[in-house]
């Protein structure tokens, strides 16, 4: 279908605007170069080789992943310097060891003494070291040792002094930027996460320990603060696609969003003043419920339409006000959904259709599972 | 891993209890035999060959699917008498025609004159007929012509008299049973859908038209009413797995639910009185938000635990009351989630692990896409 217009696709279909992807990726590369900080892009949003190539500028080095399936997938395709930024799962220690023994630089993350004990019990072959990042919670409230607790420094020291294990870095995810609205709020959280991380790095230095530091989230890395120049790395991910959520936070404009779900009208329901479309939660995900005046997505070019509800393969669309003019939406006509959360929407699709200015270029196939 | 306990699985993992699946399937087969009505099981919940074999008693005949990808998948593996019960998508007419020309009995569904026009414009080869079901809305409020509108009878007549097209049946989905609580309410909706469908069949008969009739939904077919004996077919699907939602509706008991998501504790957060588990929305889906006192799922054997929130690969678990006793939940320990909605949860997994009494038997691989 190369060269064909998007309208040849069977729907629902996830389409990726390659020009926007490249522009978003290039902007982040330049932003990090300007900051003088290493960009370690996160793969979790797209999980494809092609997009990873774009995000790494073709180097296939220095990435972060959220699942071990992603780590193995990228390792199998020549990627290296991979950080598996997920609190070490005990059922996957052996698979992590195999990757550590095979790659130049496979890195794991932990936030609990029991995890360190797991590594100690599984020394790597050929005198190799486990490369370990300490996960620090700087206010995000998900994984990590809370920065203010004495256990944080104790954990870092324990990692650093354990035989066969190297403290490679300190890693903080500022997912709390997702509660922000606008650049000012984003930068306040970015500043706080950076300051707390740098204060922790100072404590480490005092204890005679040096290692890398990394913070990340798409909002903070889209609007970095000056102090981030003192970090070693940043690790945003969603920025390559962006989405409606990121535009509401203020990370990007709606024009920067590189993904869409194409859907077609499959039903007219005049007795309910509704349309049916062929995109349900199997094509969009349920993420974004109650977050938008237009329902579960933005329907491009139709600001008066709302994606009210979804079942597995159906979406109910109604006007925000007034009666629907059905002649504008004949059965079979295309509508374009801008996803609320591109990570969640991409996760629902076994293949992405890539285009430039509406002409198809090919397909990207993501990896799945754990 | 055959014969191994479930604990050898890497998590998150969707596990299917084969004994429960067989029991649920057998009960529905027997229920339909007793009613004297043809069972046409829906494949949308699991989308696997193995489960389709169980649901059809090995016949590989008489199934209903929600996507054309499912139709093709089953056709490629020797299934026939397939009903693609989805308002005819105009972008897929040619693929539907190919299946109609290849299978003994491939059936499509429509609810609009423009769809009939699509079929008329694409006559099938070798004198074959399009086999068409008319979708009737008997109060569910999704797809279909509303039973009370004159257009319903007009559509049926138009289908019946169109050259190259045969009116095979009338199809109603009583998804409105999902709002029920308890057998009495379920049966009231089942009765209403059945009555309205049978009244419509009478109108058809008066107009000189005979064809099949089918209603379905897991709640209504789990508690059928006597009048359903007058239908030709029923088409439930979720009953093979069931889920927490079905147990709340009253379709089944929680013991009948055949699927679980296994997850492990990956973090302790005493400062928030929370645990982290390695199952986020990528492993469970976001379906069920706000529907359960225990959050997004039921945590088996731990009635005081609540799956409070999820991000892509993390779940936050907290007690419903009191402080967490972390010694009960060491890092690496297994928890078992009973999904709110098995269709949504199964859709997140590239593979299902099948077991009998906790011993692994093998894997089932679902088809995906459209």
TrEMBL record, chains A, B:
Taken from the record, one Pfam family name reads Ala_racemase_N
For this protein, the record's InterPro entries field holds: Ala_racemase_N, D-amino_acid_metab_enzyme, D-ser_dehydrat-like_dom, D-ser_dehydrat-like_sf, PLP-binding_barrel
Q: Which reaction does it catalyse?
A: D-serine = pyruvate + NH4(+)
What's in the keyword line of the UniProt record? Lyase, Metal-binding, Pyridoxal phosphate, Zinc
Q: List its EC numbers.
A: 4.3.1.18
Its needed co-factors are: pyridoxal 5'-phosphate; Zn(2+)
Enzyme category, top tier: lyase
Domain (D-serine dehydratase-like) ranges: 258-356
**A GO biological process this protein is involved in?**
D-serine catabolic process
One Gene Ontology term of the molecular function aspect: D-serine ammonia-lyase activity
Member of which family?
A: Belongs to the DSD1 family.
* Record protein name field: D-serine dehydratase
Q: Which organism is it from?
A: Parambassis ranga
What is the primary gene name for this protein?
Answer: LOC114450079
